[in-house]
Design brief:
- The chain is an all-beta fold and about 120 residues long.
- The chain is about 0% helix and about 50% strand.
- It is built from no helices and eleven strands.
- The strands form two sheets. Strands 2, 4, 5, 6, 9, 10 and 11 form a seven-stranded mixed β-sheet that branches.
């Protein structure tokens, strides 16, 4: 089993920045792909950014050029640097992980979520 714990959410003004962190514990060796989903009120969850086991990345079109995903393998931690935040980025952000090398549509492991609120 894998446990994912997010931190770094909060309230920020539009145009500001936040950095989310996700610490993984448990069966770390089983993890390959890691990433972030988000869910805004009244909307479906969407993949924001993902990191493959080979170091490849992919981003939602809405965050390209503003968000950066990275991973510190030694510390079993994945980060999401969010710059130029917009009101529409307001959502609960979930850290996800999966044994598959690339992020599947339904990741196996989910964190509890952290709230990001961007005031306009």
């Amino acid at each position: 089993q894998v446990q994912l714990v997010e931190s770094g959410g909060g309230l920020v003004q539009a145009g500001g920045s936040l950095r989310l962190s996700c610490a993984a514990s448990g069966s770390i060796a089983s993890i390959n792909a890691m990433g972030w989903y988000r869910q805004a009120p009244g909307k479906q969850r969407e993949l924001v950014a993902a990191l493959t086991s080979g170091g490849g990345t992919n981003y939602a079109d809405s965050v390209k050029g503003r968000f950066t995903i990275s991973r510190d393998t030694a510390k079993n931690t994945v980060f999401l640097q969010m710059n130029s935040l917009k009101h529409e980025d307001t959502a609960v952000y979930y850290c996800v992980a999966d044994p598959w090398p690339t992020m599947p549509n339904s990741p196996r492991y989910w964190g509890q979520g952290t709230q990001v609120t961007v005031s306009s």
